[in-house]
Amino acid sequence: MNEIGAGTSDRYNINSIVRACAILRALAKDNESLRVGEIAKRMGLDRTTVYRIVVTLENIGFLERKPGTKEYKLGLGAFEVGSAYLRTTDLYSVARPVMIDLAQEVQEAVHWAILSGDNTVCIDKIDTPRGLGTMSKIGRAAPLHCSSVGKVLLAFQPEDRRQAIIGRLTLTRYTERTITSPDVLRQELEKVRRRGYCVTYGEGEIDMACIAGPIFDHSGTVVAGLSIGGPIHRMSGSDATGFMVQRLLAATRRISEKLGCSEPPAFEDAA
Questions:
Q1: pLDDT over 90 at 199, yes or no
Q2: 49, 32 in Cβ contact below 8 A?
Q3: Which residues lie below 8 Å from residue 250, measured CB to CB, with a gap of 6+?
Q4: Average pLDDT of the chain to the nearest whole number
């Protein structure tokens, strides 16, 4: 279970709220529905504690029981809060029209994601106009080490935080191209910091490619990553890759500028 409330004093945490949020996140992952016993096992808590929290969340509409089963899934309350977050996030309203334009330019799927704990979470996505795009889903958490947007988000963290996250990561192998060595990952992240973007081919999904770049706010802090994704056969080759990198970086600059970043960092290989 990822740390919740990192950066604040633990003495202010209310354990029942922390656990309730962890349950909601567990059910949000891959749109799962789970029994109380399964939730308890995943969280390492006793079944009675989890049952009381689940029933409370059900009573206030944040969880629902699937008809005819003992499994629970996210309820309308969770949707209302998530939707409100999107409506009140400046980045969402700023990024969406830029993403629509970018998807039309490159004819591939475009999405932006944020760093959440030790994962990346997709916040919004524009599907490819020609079908057969990436498998990313809004609200879905994904590993940092095997996606271009994950590496971008990790690469532009402050040094101490970046190293702390790398130290905690489980570098699961998903394909033959997945990076499973912390030292190799560190080398890759240094390259991303120099170039200002990341390209991956078949690291998370064997036939998929992805190109991502960072989005900065008014303080020069990376707040999100913007990504183009699609089948390798459509995105490989120097001409295709070069064009997409150029259009991606133009889009990230537009979004960053709209967020108040007047001078985005200069990168040695930026198109």
A1: yes
A2: no
A3: none
A4: 85
